[in-house]
């Protein structure tokens, strides 16, 4: 009898041991499954967050960054994104070159010039661009001028910033015509707008939201990028090549998060009006009626647009080395 009891106890112990082993095995399997989930899954939230520093100017192109940060979209994609504000493109680009930021919004003229100077930067996506109902850049005439068309700009002084996207936009908006403008260098955009409104200059090329505010204050619209039948002023998203080479998955997650933020903005733009006003310094006089842009999903920057920019830069003798589309565009490797 005792022998039977002993055998029974031994069998019970063996069964319990097997059951416990099974529990341990299942626990480990579940943990591994969660850790290896795809983009945006629970695994991204469990894993250590990848730090990315993004430079942002106070313009509407950066709104998806702030929405993704504010609503936890970056976090859900396993990212710890720090948005670092800059007041000028020069400050932003200097920080990028110095490695103080990893990437952010930019423009193709600036990217080409930095690559020409030997800095390895890559365009990872198209950014914000003008649409028929939303301009990004415009040539405006002063309130007291009699300028009402591009032809009226002939011989007039127009305030710009040389060898920048503003200069490129100005030449493109004026077009290949007999119109010859006299360009005046005014780098600081607020000063450029003030000179326009005080009639110290005949015209000026301004970006949004300064263009809308200048119109509100009495400036006259001559032409904007939204009035053309082609896109001439796309923004781009860029990263340093060394960061891309080390962290390609992080950039994929960044673009996926950006795309989610774009969907939310486009679905309910007024929900994000206050955030847009705060981050882009839209003047209160126009804030409630300011047209919010329609944002694009991440996508490749078109080669035709790139080639047009490079042709303009070469015509101005601003490039001394080859800046190719193939070397500039990130393929997602």
Provide the low-confidence segments as ranges.
Answer: 1-46
Going by CATH, the homologous superfamily of the largest domain would be: Periplasmic binding protein-like II
Specify the overall morphology. globular
Measured by DSSP, the beta-strand proportion falls in 15-25%
Any idea of the CATH class of the largest domain?
Alpha Beta
User: Largest sheet, order of strands side by side?
Assistant: 2-1-3-10-4
Q: Distance N terminus to C terminus?
A: 72 Å
The main β sheet shows up as: 5 strands, mixed
Secondary-structure element sequence? HHEHHEHEHEEEHEHEHEEHHHHHH
Give the structural class.
alpha/beta
Using the coordinates shown, work out and report the CATH topology of the largest domain.
Answer: D-Maltodextrin-Binding Protein, domain 2
**Tally of alpha and pi helices:** 15
Question: On the 0-100 scale, what is the average pLDDT?
Answer: 87
Q: How many beta strands in the DSSP annotation?
A: 10
Describe the structure using short key phrases.
15 helices, 333 residues, D-Maltodextrin-Binding Protein, domain 2, alpha/beta
Write the layout of secondary structure elements.
Layout: H1 2-35, H2 42-46, E1 50-56, H3 63-70, H4 73-76, E2 79-85, H5 89-97, E3 103-106, H6 108-116, E4 121-126, E5 137-141, E6 157-160, H7 165-174, E7 182-185, H8 189-197, E8 203-207, H9 210-216, E9 220-224, E10 236-240, H10 241-246, H11 248-267, H12 273-280, H13 284-287, H14 303-315, H15 325-328
Parallel strand pairs: 1-2, 1-3, 6-7, 6-8
Antiparallel strand pairs: 3-10, 4-10, 5-8, 5-9
């Amino acid at each position: 009898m005792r022998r039977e009891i002993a055998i029974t106890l031994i069998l019970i112990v063996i069964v319990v041991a097997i059951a416990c082993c099974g529990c341990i095995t299942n626990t480990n399997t579940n943990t591994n499954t969660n850790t290896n989930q795809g983009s945006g899954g629970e695994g991204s939230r469990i894993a250590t967050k990848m730090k990315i520093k993004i430079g942002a100017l106070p313009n509407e192109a950066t709104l998806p960054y702030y929405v993704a940060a504010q609503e936890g979209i970056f976090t859900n994609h396993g990212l710890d994104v720090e948005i670092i504000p800059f007041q000028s493109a020069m400050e932003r680009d200097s920080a990028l070159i110095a490695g103080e930021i990893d990437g952010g919004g930019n423009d193709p003229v600036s990217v080409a010039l930095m690559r020409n100077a030997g800095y390895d930067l890559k365009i990872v996506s198209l950014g914000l661009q003008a649409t028929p109902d939303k301009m990004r850049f415009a040539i405006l005439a002063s309130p007291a001028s009699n300028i009402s068309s591009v032809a009226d700009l002939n011989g007039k002084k127009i305030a710009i910033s040389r060898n920048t996207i503003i200069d490129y936009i100005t030449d493109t908006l004026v077009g290949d015509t007999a119109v010859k403008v006299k360009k005046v260098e005014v780098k600081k955009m607020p000063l450029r707008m003030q000179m326009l409104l005080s009639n110290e200059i005949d015209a000026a090329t301004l970006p949004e939201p300064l263009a809308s505010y200048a119109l509100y204050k009495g400036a006259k619209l001559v032409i904007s990028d939204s009035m053309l039948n082609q896109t001439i002023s796309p923004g781009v998203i860029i990263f340093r090549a060394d960061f891309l080479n080390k962290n390609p998955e992080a950039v994929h997650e960044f673009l996926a998060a950006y795309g989610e933020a774009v969907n939310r903005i486009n679905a309910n733009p007024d929900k994000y009006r206050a955030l847009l006003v705060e981050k882009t310094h839209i003047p209160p006089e126009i804030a409630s009626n300011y047209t919010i842009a329609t944002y694009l999903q991440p996508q490749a920057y078109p080669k035709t647009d790139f080639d047009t920019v490079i042709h303009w830069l070469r015509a101005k003798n601003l490039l001394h080395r080859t800046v190719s589309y193939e070397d500039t565009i990130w393929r997602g490797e």
